[in-house]
Design a protein that fits this description.
This protein has helices spanning 2-15, 19-38, 71-85, 89-92, 95-119, 123-143, 151-183, 192-212, 217-233, 242-265. It is mainly alpha-helical. It starts with a helix and ends with a helix. This is Tryptophan-rich sensory protein.
């Protein structure tokens, strides 16, 4: 009887611990607000026009069309939903969420930081920040392998949100890297063959991630989304190229097929 009572008391203590959940919701809210400001929506310069237009839709062979960035609205909405849900008793009693919160908060802060590095025209620093963000999201995907206790709500707000987040940042990392080298005068990163190499490597990394994480669909969808919009962007403009269009489209299909095949195999 005493053992059961003690276990119940420990569980209740864990469930009612508010410090980290409150810090997480405040931090994510602040990070989303900073990201909104850093995007140039109210002040500053829109990202596509910042750093001399290095990140515009026609800056490099790996730049996605402007419409691709609409995925951020879904990711931010998911982060807001996650921040609220992780305050619930179910989430506060979850070991999975306990491990996830600090990394979720860090990912939001790094994203806001990336936007400000671009506003300050610090492209090389932006690459460092986005690579760090990608590393944090890889860690988050690893943590999401732990048992889920929150049912469909947790599946959507946690696995879905951070899956999309990872998949998009993976594609964005390649685009950011190409833009930075091109802006630095490395002309090879403005050539079609090097662009094709980048698309193939991005697809290979995303496919490997799909096989490693059991074929989660959200990361594959987000990466494929980014690759598909690269294909759209290469239908016109300075870097218009049939080779890039077909390579980007094929890369998007490979990423999705890898996730589906991994799901079936699992």
């Amino acid at each position: 009887m005493s053992t059961t009572t003690a276990a119940s008391r420990d569980h209740q203590s864990t469930r009612t611990s508010w410090a980290m959940p409150i810090l997480t919701v405040l931090g994510i809210a602040a990070a989303i607000a900073m990201a909104y400001l850093g995007s140039g929506a109210l002040v500053g310069t829109p990202v596509a026009e910042a750093a001399g237009g290095a990140l515009s839709a026609d800056a490099t062979p790996l730049a996605p069309a402007s419409a691709a960035f609409s995925i951020w609205a879904v990711i931010y909405l998911g982060l807001a939903g996650y921040a609220i849900w992780q305050l619930t008793p179910t989430a506060r009693a979850s070991e999975r969420q306990r491990a996830l919160r600090p990394w979720a908060l860090l990912s939001a802060l790094l994203n806001a930081g990336w936007l400000f590095t671009v506003q300050l025209d610090q492209l090389w620093l932006s690459v460092v920040v986005i690579v760090a963000l990608l590393a944090v999201l890889i860690r988050i995907l690893y943590l999401l392998g732990r048992p889920r206790t929150g049912g469909v709500v947790e599946l959507v707000l946690t696995d879905g949100t951070f899956g999309l987040y990872f998949g998009w940042v993976l594609a964005a990392t390649f685009a950011n890297t190409w833009a930075t080298f091109a802006d630095a005068g490395v002309t090879a990163f403005e050539e079609v063959p090097v662009g094709i190499v980048g698309l193939v490597v991005a697809a290979a990394v995303a496919a490997l991630a799909a096989f490693r994480d059991g074929g989660r669909i959200a990361p594959a969808l987000a990466t494929a989304w980014g690759l598909a919009w690269i294909a759209v962007a290469r239908t016109e403009g300075e870097f218009a190229s049939e080779a890039l269009v077909w390579t980007a489209a094929a890369a998007a299909a490979v990423v999705l097929l890898a996730a589906i095949a991994s799901q079936i195999r699992r």
